[in-house]
Amino acid sequence: MSEPAVPSPPSPSGQLRPATVAVIAGRPAHVPDEPLNVPITMAATYVAGGDLEYGRYANPTWTAFEDALGALEGGRCLAFASGLAAVSTVLDLVAQGGKVVAPAHSYTGTLLQLADLEARGRIVTQLVDITDTAAVAAACEDAALVWFESPTNPALELADIPAITAAAHAAGAYVVVDNTFATPLLQRPLADGVDVVVHSATKYISGHSDVLMGAVVTSDDDLHAVLKGRRELLGAIPGSFETWLALRGLRTLHVRVERAQANAAELVSRLRTHGAVSEVRYPGFGAIVSVVLAGGAIAADLLTHQTRLWVHATSLGGVESTLERRRRWKAEPTTIPEGLVRLSVGIEDVDDLWADLGQALDRLVDPV
Ligand SMILES: *Cc1c(COP(=O)(O)O)cnc(C)c1O
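Above: query sequence and pyridoxal-5'-phosphate SMILES. Below: predicted holo structure tokens.
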């Protein structure tokens, strides 16, 4: 008697919706007695004669993660050791002396890399207000690469991605979007013609504040080959255990983002009416909220020390709610208010989150 045919998993690139893709993409074929998940492959080298050869070139655990994130973003993904490893590999595409346009309010590590490259004469950088589309388009004219975040960190400004992409392409520049804040569930820049998407997978993709990883996604096969070559040469590869953890986190991305976003929207409406808060910045989606406190830096520092549930910590995108006064970092641009506190809203019960944040804010208005 012949074996019944083993159904193969559906292709994630078909008509499936993002929540399904997050769960099924990058899985092994459905074979009896085989695990549902890709195992952690611990290998520095492989028996010669096949496709993998050496651990810096390829790893089956990376491939599973890359298939899943690539399917969500709509391109081909490469995993990196950290978000900044991905950033530096992409910035390395710029030829000697080329110009990079980037938002003045970018992630500080990206700004520091740009400043470092410029100080060493590698590139020229022009920082722009990403909300001023006409000024950004003008800056693109002699650019080699246009880099942006939207929403920006921590100002939460939004860019007109299709318009800026068109202007950059007209000038022959690459366009890169750091999609860490939005995730592929809320924004898919490749569909707007962007060349490369970068992620700090440390944040929402892995989602549990226990792993550092990065990723690059592109729908251009030539760029993919170049970036893969740079990863092999520069060696910014992730560990297979980290990659497995990030993939495990990615399986619940849609559920976490949905819950965190709902919590954020509710907290925004409560924060807007609180007397200790002079400004609430929220782009209308996602789960990062910035509040500017009426009492400036002192009030902001007090707030970060007077919450119990909310953890005072840098980073973002985990299941747990965290908060931080961004100007405590020397590298943060001085155009970010001293009293700005960035909230990374997690997936806890929103009333518990508000009770804790609310009591800490109340004490700023009426200290006891
Ligand atoms: C954290 C972060 C990075 C850097 O990623 P690491 O994983 O910490 O190296 C880059 N971009 C944004 C928007 C980030 O939030």
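The first helix runs from residue 18 to 24.
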